[in-house]
Design a protein that fits this description.
Strand order of the largest sheet: 13-10-12-11-15-16-14
Structural class: alpha+beta
Strand content: 15-25%
Distance between the termini: 54 Å
Mean pLDDT: 89
Number of helices: 15
Shape: globular
Largest sheet: 7 strands, antiparallel
């Protein structure tokens, strides 16, 4: 096959271009893959032509906006990567409180744009994540208990289908596709080129909540988990939190809380009383604009890092013994790991008020998402760190139900059931209707084997290269693990 993509108006990057090595980097730099061609699209026509070309040449497609898929599914060896990151126009209709964005916008771009008009937005915490992938997988963020998941604000989507045609889907037109794309749309049905969201009411200020607990003991981490699950039972829906117990090379054992409250700092401090009563709590609870709050939260995410992770949904309280076992999971880090942790992403509130079958996002009634991760710096430790997660996952799996598709884990045995629960059958039916050739396939898609125009099957399997082939990527000698700024060292 030629190393040029004929018939496209978008910018083309091939393996021979100087920027190729930079272009193929994903957020998780432990995954290195080599697509055949990367097409930077700027119009719907670019996207359409790319899809048509891929079918004609039997080259598998990968779709990339922010490039943050934890298992590297927005990239792939010997694939055509359709990159829509340059499609980032936005507009607001203040008469109807509606936001329309192209498929390549990121959280940061949306936050800055809507905040200029006085609006908040139920987006994610990492500023460079693409809003399309975020919302199509459900969309957890620090406003979700107040406004719902990212997909709950979606009013309409526009996508390029397997034929290269434009389809608009909403509650009245192609309603089945619209249902499926709110929780299971990431890469399965087409390429999102436009989305329209209903915006929340304008706000003057929110309250940013930051609490650190450094140099703690295992018993204090167990107590933290108890306080977390008790607090959630009666928590005001205007507040959404991330909790974390962790073990890092910098801090030893620690915990933290980060969150946003749509109300005053004084009320927020009262709501956080149980967490503030724990030993070694250092806190900052401060009123500020919505944009200031999300910018602070997002400022800690590194440009890239090597990590392995797995997610689950918690539906019940954990016993004392179970909390002890959870803390024990991170007591010993993997060789080479600089950080190991269990993060807790609060659900409930507006998320649970929407019925399970109203959207494809299945886990409406879960209390929170759990996320186990390990971060390493030196490439030679990749294998040990991946095995560290694999060895601990069975215990996490035994006490939880299902996994969050936006925090994917490649080792799930029955990934469709884990991500979509009893919605799998309906989703497969919709997949067959809107993508009968299964052009949009990847390692954990609804159907894994794709076909080109003549019916010949093709599928570019994901084969991660050995990490020692990464050269000196990220080898700065500095610890670059995911962590929030310290409250006491501002």
């Amino acid at each position: 096959m030629n190393n040029f993509l004929y018939g496209l108006t978008g910018e083309i990057v091939t393996p021979f271009d100087p920027v190729y090595s930079e272009a193929r980097q994903g957020f998780n730099t432990a995954i290195q893959q080599f697509p055949l061609i990367i097409v930077y699209c700027t119009t719907k026509n670019d996207v359409s032509n790319a899809v048509i070309w891929s079918r004609g040449h039997c080259v598998p497609i990968r779709i990339r906006s922010g490039g943050h898929n934890y298992e590297g599914y927005s990239n792939g060896d010997c694939t055509l990567v359709i990159d829509i990151s340059q499609m980032n126009d936005m507009s607001i209709d203040e008469s109807s409180d509606e936001l329309t964005v192209q498929g390549g916008v990121t959280n940061k771009l949306v936050y800055e744009f809507v905040a200029s008009k006085g609006y908040p937005f139920p987006g994610g915490t990492c500023p460079t994540v693409g809003v399309s992938g975020y919302a199509l997988g459900g969309g957890w963020g620090l406003s979700c208990r107040n406004f719902g998941l990212g997909c709950d604000s979606l009013k309409e989507i526009e996508l390029i289908n397997y034929e290269g045609s434009v389809i608009k889907a909403n509650r009245e037109s192609h309603s089945d596709l619209f249902w499926a794309c709110r929780g299971a749309g990431g890469g399965n049905f087409g390429i999102i080129v436009s989305m329209t969201f209903n915006l929340p009411p304008k706000v003057r200020n929110v309250t940013l909540i930051e609490i650190d607990y450094l140099n703690v003991h295992e018993q204090e981490q167990e107590e933290f988990l108890y306080v977390w699950q008790e607090w959630l039972k009666t928590a005001d829906q205007r507040i959404t939190l991330i909790g974390r117990v962790y073990h890092s090379s910098a801090d030893g054992l620690g915990m933290l809380i980060r969150g946003i409250f749509y109300g005053s700092a004084e009320v927020a401090k009262e709501m956080m009383a149980d967490f503030l009563a724990l030993d070694k709590a250092e806190y900052n609870i401060e009123a500020m604009t919505f944009l200031e709050a999300v910018t602070i939260i997002g400022s800690v995410y590194p440009a890239s890092e090597k990590f392995q992770s797995a997610s689950r949904f918690a539906f019940r309280d954990f016993t004392s013994n179970e909390r002890m076992e959870l803390v024990d999971l991170i007591k010993r880090r993997s060789p080479g790991s600089v950080f190991a942790g269990i993060s807790l992403y609060a659900l409930g509130g507006r998320v649970s008020e929407i019925e399970t079958d109203d959207t494809a996002f299945y886990y409406r009634k879960a209390k929170y998402i759990m996320w186990l991760e390990t971060v390493w710096e030196k490439p030679r430790y990749a294998k040990e760190n991946r095995e560290w997660v694999d060895n601990r996952f069975p215990y996490l799996e035994a006490i939880t139900i299902g996994s969050y598709v936006n925090f994917p884990y490649g080792e799930l045995y029955d990934y469709l059931h884990e991500y979509y629960g009893t919605h799998v059958r309906a989703l497969k039916k919709i997949k067959k209707k809107y993508d009968p050739k299964n052009i949009f396939a990847f390692p954990q898609s609804l159907e894994r084997v794709a076909c080109c125009n003549d019916g010949v099957s093709f599928y570019a399997q994901y084969y991660p290269l050995e990490d020692d082939m990464e050269g000196n990527l990220n080898e700065t000698g500095e610890e670059n693990y995911r962590g929030f700024r310290y409250v006491s060292k501002r």
